[in-house]
Design a protein that fits this description.
The complex is a heterodimer of chains A (426) and B (187). Chain A is of the alpha/beta class. Chain A has three domains: 183 residues, 3-Layer(aba) Sandwich (Rossmann fold), CATH 3.40.50; 48 residues; 173 residues, no CATH class. Chain A is built from 17 helices and seven strands. In chain A, strand 4, helix 4 and strand 5 form a beta-alpha-beta unit. The radius of gyration of chain A is 26 Å and the shape is globular. By secondary structure, chain B is an all-alpha fold. Chain B has two domains: 67 residues, Orthogonal Bundle (Helicase, Ruva Protein, domain 3), CATH 1.10.8.60; 91 residues, Zinc Finger, Delta Prime, domain 3 (Up-down Bundle), CATH 1.20.272. Chain B has a two-stranded parallel ribbon with strand order 1-2. Chain B is globular, with a radius of gyration of 20 Å. The model of chain B has no long low-confidence stretch (mean pLDDT 82). The chains are: A alpha/beta (426), B mainly alpha (187).
Chain lengths: 426, 187
């Protein structure tokens, strides 16, 4: 068993890091009732641990006997029926699921699931705890529709069903849901707290853990407790007894990203673009989420660029953000391409305006490809679809021309007439 | 929520009722009524805090009140309410702003790291930063304020669309630095 699971605190009393929150939660459920809860915080901060401990507090040991089920639903949506499948984790009193796995059909899951839960209301002889708990993971990834239907069901079945929502960023949860829940912020443990936990684990495993080494693991863990414990275990396998200056191996994908950033800095040519692109694909194929990838890349680049470049970087960051914004919604296949384009563009010693044009053209060209799944309308530039399509075609053409101009070293002809600023506002 | 999204043919067939955010007085009355019924002890300061953090949203105010009562017993102070509401403490936002003022990118970056690790929602940070900037004194020119606000607006839209909090906050930080140190803001 991994240490991460082995030493996960099972009850609210045994929690080491978020003691105050745990005590508050305990008070919350002592009165047989609890409000809907929304847990938010960075990953590895202990949201899930607290939720499981809370469930145990409410229902006792029976909350730990969970079974994994792959359930199928048939949803009647007007003229057609939709078949949905989702993995759930349930005990007699609670069901845990990740509705965002169902993609854009997540709202059916939300509606059907809660309805079903509310139908089989648990009956207790003492008339106590007449409610079930539904744990929803990754609420921030739910579509807007699902969130809207969630709030209706939250109210309708509030007598028999409590929701515990869990997410990374509460910015993506609608105000309406937030105002119906008690929001619980779980902060990432500080480095001292991580060291404390590491020492606790080491003691249980009867290992000698030098303080300096523990501190270094904590530092490298980026304030994620899960990661700290995992790397402690890895180090244990690699080399025991621990020494103070033992190497802590970073994740292999992180090394790979570091490599990519070195490549990007070394040479800015179509050839290296091609290579970098291949590498980024490699990472994407290995299920490294693009968000994570981009963040890491930014981190590496920031580290590698010396301080005199920092000013230039402000510009760079801006571009990155814009692209990030696109990327979150755009087709994943286009992503690395765009991504590197931006990188290259910014790495070029003197980013010319024509390059920006290419970028913007590409951005829109990507959008054409994705019109069918375009749920993120860029309101500033799009009001009617066909007008948009025309604009896009024109821009893509312009971008192509600009690109070849640039490649063949022709003088820039567009910037004279068109400032990039104007493009974003059309 | 927004009647502008209802198409004209539908809207013209309906009688419209407009709801405004509740006035502070109405809210206080209702809250006091609940407090009496539930036997809660809510001071004047706590009451005004409650109405300011809930911004005219009575449901939210009641949720905060109930959570506060559940967690901290029948006497509720304004600090308890701030705790349950998830409002970011003013110091945090001010520290962020000071870091931006310093003009040093590394300091700002560290501050952003910290905010994200503490789990404060970026949307809340931008909202509160906006308040600070609007009310900031003479050391920031109107032009600078405008630039910062523009970037805050864009960030808000991106956050709603689901962009990453860390990168967005970093964007706000670097833009603010640039605005404050009068760097060119093209691109």
């Amino acid at each position: 068993m991994l240490w991460v699971d082995k030493y996960r605190p099972k009850s609210l009393d045994k929690v080491i890091v978020h003691e105050d929150i745990a005590q508050n939660l305990k008070k919350l459920v002592t009165e047989q009732d609890c409000p809907h809860l929304l847990f938010y915080g960075p990953s590895g901060s202990g949201k899930k641990t607290l939720i499981m401990a809370l469930l145990k507090q409410i229902y006792g040991a029976s909350a730990e006997k969970v079974k994994v089920e792959n359930r199928a639903w048939k949803v009647d949506a007007g003229s057609r029926t939709i078949d949905l499948e989702l993995t759930t984790l349930s005990s007699t009193n609670h069901v845990e699921l990740t509705p965002s796995d169902a993609g854009f059909q997540d709202r059916y899951i939300v509606q059907e699931m809660i309805k079903e839960m509310a139908k089989n209301r648990p009956i207790d002889t003492k008339g106590k705890k007449g409610y079930k708990v539904l744990v929803l993971n990754e609420v921030d990834k739910l579509s807007r529709e699902a969130q809207h239907s969630l709030r209706r069901t939250m109210e309708k079945y509030s007598s028999s069903c409590r929701l515990i929502l869990c997410c990374n960023s509460s910015s993506k949860v609608t105000e309406a849901i937030k105002s119906r829940c008690l929001n619980v912020r779980i902060n990432a443990p500080s480095q001292e707290e991580i060291v404390k936990v590491l020492e606790f684990v080491a003691k249980k495993e009867s290992l000698q853990l030098p303080h300096g080494f523990a501190a270094r693991i904590a530092e490298k863990s980026n304030r994620s407790l899960r990661r700290a414990i995992l790397s402690l275990e890895t180090c244990r396998v690699q080399n025991y007894p621990f020494t103070d200056n033992q190497a802590i191996s970073p994740m292999d994908w992180e090394e790979y990203v570091a490599e990519i950033s070195t490549d990007m800095l070394r040479e800015q040519s179509p050839k290296s673009l091609f290579q970098v692109r291949g590498k980024v694909y490699e990472l994407l194929v290995n299920c490294i989420p693009p968000e994570v990838l981009l963040k890491r890349l930014l981190y590496e680049l920031l580290r590698k660029l010396d301080s005199e470049l920092k000013l230039e970087e402000h510009r760079m960051r801006l571009g990155q953000k814009a692209i990030f914004h696109i990327e979150v919604y755009e087709h994943i296949q286009e992503l690395p391409h765009l991504n590197i384009w931006v990188e290259k563009r910014r790495m070029a010693p003197n980013p010319g305006k024509e390059e920006l044009l290419v970028l913007q053209g590409e951005y829109r060209a990507t959008k054409v490809g994705n019109i069918s799944r375009l749920f993120n309308f860029d309101l500033s530039c799009i009001s009617a679809l066909h007008a948009q399509a025309l604009t896009l075609a024109a821009l893509a053409g312009a971008a192509a021309v600009e690109y070849y101009d640039h490649k063949t070293g022709a003088t820039d002809r567009y910037p004279k007439f068109l400032k990039p600023d104007n493009l974003t506002k059309d | 929520m927004e009647s502008i999204r209802i198409i004209e043919p539908l809207a013209s067939r309906c009688a419209k009722f407009r709801f405004k955010p509740l006035s502070e007085e109405v809210m206080s009355n209702r809250i006091m009524h609940i407090c009496n019924e539930e036997g809660l002890n809510l001071g004047g300061e706590a009451l005004s805090t409650l109405s300011s953090i809930s911004q005219g949203d009575l449901r939210r105010a009641i949720t905060y009140l109930q959570s506060g009562a559940r967690l901290f017993g029948s006497t509720i102070t304004s600090k308890d309410l701030l705790d349950v509401s998830g409002v970011v403490p003013l110091e945090v936002v001010e520290r962020f702003f000071t870091a931006c003022k310093s003009g040093d990118f590394d300091i700002a970056n560290k501050e952003v790291d910290n905010i994200v690790a503490e789990g404060y929602p970026a949307s809340q940070i931008t909202n509160q930063l906006f308040d600070i900037i609007v009310e900031a004194g003479d050391d920031i020119t109107d032009n600078q304020k405008a630039k910062i606000c523009k970037c805050l607006a864009e960030t808000d839209k991106r956050l709603v669309d689901g962009a990453d909090e860390y990168l967005q906050l970093l964007d706000v930080a670097s833009n603010t630095i640039r605005a404050l140190s009068e760097m060119a803001q093209d691109l």
